[in-house]
Amino acid sequence: MSDREFAFPDNGYGYAAPNLPGFVMPTLEFKGKPFVYSHHLSVPFRELVIDPKKSLPGGKKASLDDNLIIHGDNLEALKALLSRYAGKVDVIYIDPPYNTGTEGWAYNDNVNSPLMKEWLGKVVDRDDLERHDKWLCMMWPRLQLLHELLAADGVFLVSVDDNEVHRLRMLLDEIFGEESFLAQFTWKSRKFPDSRSVTGISTDHEYILAYQSSSGMGFRGVDRDETKFQNPDNDSRGPWMSRSMLGLATAQQRPNLHFSIVDPKTRVEYAPPKNRGWRYSRDRLEAMIKEGRVLFPKKEDGRPREKKFRNELQNAFVAFPTIIDDVFTADGTAELREIFGTQTFDFPKPSQLLEKLIEQVVTDDAIVLDSFAGSGTTAHAALKLSNASGVRIKFILVECEKYADTLTAERVRRVINGVPKAKEDPLKKGLGGSFTYCGLGQPIELESFFEGKGAPQYEQVARYVVYTATGQSADAPAEPRKDWFVAESGGYRIHLIYKPDLAFMRSNESALTLDLATQIEKGAKGKPILVYAAAKFMSQADLTRRGITFCQLPYSVHRVLGEAPDAT
Q: Is residue 349 situated within a structural domain?
């Protein structure tokens, strides 16, 4: 815990109450946190490089607008995705290493932060990092970038077990905000008790933490069991079901809910138990009896029940339970065996589990991201949902291991094309779909281009410029337009005078001229303008008069402070 949480003013009873000035929410401190706290900001933007041969269908049809499977370090991949998807991802699900001490994953010492290098090498011995510190250092910057990618109405989901759940809760409270916590689901992952346990205790569960981007979100709920509604007495109000009318209040707590009601036909009186009481008041129950909404028992030792009509229910769904106990890890293992014919991955999540969760929060054209993709379960679940419901769901997977192509992407290929030996459709026939396979290219550092080391494509630089300037993602043209217009973002019209051509960038054509500025000003219609170019051939007075802010490439690619002023 942070020492800051104990620095409360004394209120006469010890420490200050949470609602008093000076209260600071507790935070989790760990070795390395000061050095990874802002590390995500120093991670360079990299190009997403399409591999047509590994894409499906591949060739010229491979596109960054398609479903994506990215092979590379997930921290760098998430940074690469920001320029396209910042604030646009509807559902994020991750299944990071559980940190049991046996996974074999290693914290990456080759971080770019000089402070981290110095700290690891000099201030703290590498062996002095406990495994929990390593795990938290690994998770912090990745969670920061995932938070930036999540849409304003999005939901973040993460699987975890007892080893780190309490620490992860505190990380997420700090990054997403404690008020963004939605639920802690308990997933009964083991179908049968573990008889190998040396403690005699079978750990049969894992957790799934859920956070929302903004208040007012939540899950849709599960379908109501319509089979319970019938109409055996041909009631004109339609199908109904019977339910208990008992409440939870004792006679001492709510004496007004403890009274007898009389069956108007038999005159038999029925009283509630002393420790329960009725759910409704005397007046309400008497009105329900007159309306034929109370079902009296045939035997005197029975208890009256309520008629609940289907057409009076305001919601077709009931609340999603926090205990998930109808799908297991064994189902995920069997699923992979059916797809590959052999055991290919340890403890895979079953696609049914991800279906249940994703279905709760997606709408048409939703984007689902998994940056610890593993065996590709998230893509499988998204394809199943799309196939079954017709809802368009785009998936983005990131996997850093060597099996990204041979396992992660290969599973998705087989699920799309069909598995002939599968027992049932639609897996046997194939779910249909496509994806583009990518790697991570060179950092988008325009300085390297001017040094003749190669240049990123126009669209990549355009998206990078927009995000870096405004913190927002936007669509960008694949090729430059005549006036070099890229997008409107953050209240600005943004133009980029750039070509991935060294001769062009060294020529006068790459400069902002008076004629071009006049054309840009005319198209802006009074809106403030950002123009990125290698040079300008006009005065600052002319630029100011035309509402143009000139940003010289490569030096002035940075965040604009605040949104543009109102042009009116």
A: yes
Helix (H, G, I), strand (E, B) or coil at 565: coil
CA–CA distance, 452 with 12 (Å, rounded to integer): 69
Cβ atoms of 339 and 411 within 8 Å: the answer is: yes
Nearest alpha-carbon partner for 462 in 499, 504, 503: 499
What does the pLDDT read at residue 566?
53
Asked whether residue 382 falls in the same domain as residue 461, the answer is no
Tens-digit pLDDT profile for residues 439-455:
998 887 766 666 656 67
Q: What is the pLDDT of residue 490?
A: 86
Place of tokens 């041979």: 406
Q: What is the mean pLDDT of the chain?
A: 85
Which CATH number belongs to the domain containing residue 106 in this structure? 3.40.50.150
- Name which of 47, 74, 68 is nearest 399 in CA terms: 74
Q: Are residues 63 and 83 in the same domain?
A: yes
- What mean pLDDT do residues 315-337 have? 89
Q: How many domains does the chain have?
A: 3
Establish if 5 belongs to a structural domain: no
Q: Which of the two residues, 98 and 449, has the higher pLDDT score?
A: 98
Name residues whose C-beta falls within 8 Å of residue 51's C-beta, 6 or more positions apart in sequence: 62, 437, 438, 439
Q: Are strands 511-512 and 240-244 parallel, antiparallel or unpaired?
A: unpaired
pLDDT of residue 112: 46
Is the distance from CB of 464 to CB of 83 less than 8 angstroms?
yes
In a domain, 21, yes or no: no
Verify that 507 and 542 share a domain, yes or no: yes
Q: pTM for the full model? A: 0.76
Q: Residue type for 292, please?
A: G
Q: Which is nearest to 182 in space by CA: 205, 207, 216?
A: 216
Full domain range(s) for residue 458: 445-552
Could you tell me which of 421, 436, 416, 402 has the C-alpha nearest to residue 340?
A: 421
Q: 483 and 385, same structural domain?
A: no
CA–CA separation, 464 vs 147, rounded Å?
18
* H or E segment to which residue 154 belongs: strand 150-160
Q: Are residues 147 and 196 in the same domain?
A: yes
Judgement on whether residues 457 and 532 belong to the same structural domain of the protein? yes
Same domain, 248 and 370: no
Question: CA nearest 466: which of 115, 82, 95?
Answer: 82
Amino acid, single-letter form, for residue 161 = D
Determine what percent of the chain is predicted with pLDDT higher than 70: 85
8-17, 112-121, 508-517, 554-563: least confident range: 8-17
User: What pLDDT digit, counting tens, does each position of 167-204 carry?
Assistant: 999 999 999 999 999 999 999 999 998 888 888 899 99
Q: Which of 42-46, 236-240, 402-406 has the lowest mean pLDDT?
A: 42-46
Q: Quick check: is 566 in a domain?
A: no
Q: Which of 314, 341, 356 is the last residue in one of the domains? A: 314
Domain ends where: 410, 439, 468? 439
Please tell me the least confidently modeled range out of 281-285, 373-377, 378-382, 453-457: 453-457
Helices 377-389 and 410-417: crossing angle in degrees, nearest 10, is 20
76 plus 168 within the same structural domain: yes
CA 148: distance to chain centroid? 10
Distance CA 335, CA 332 (A): 5
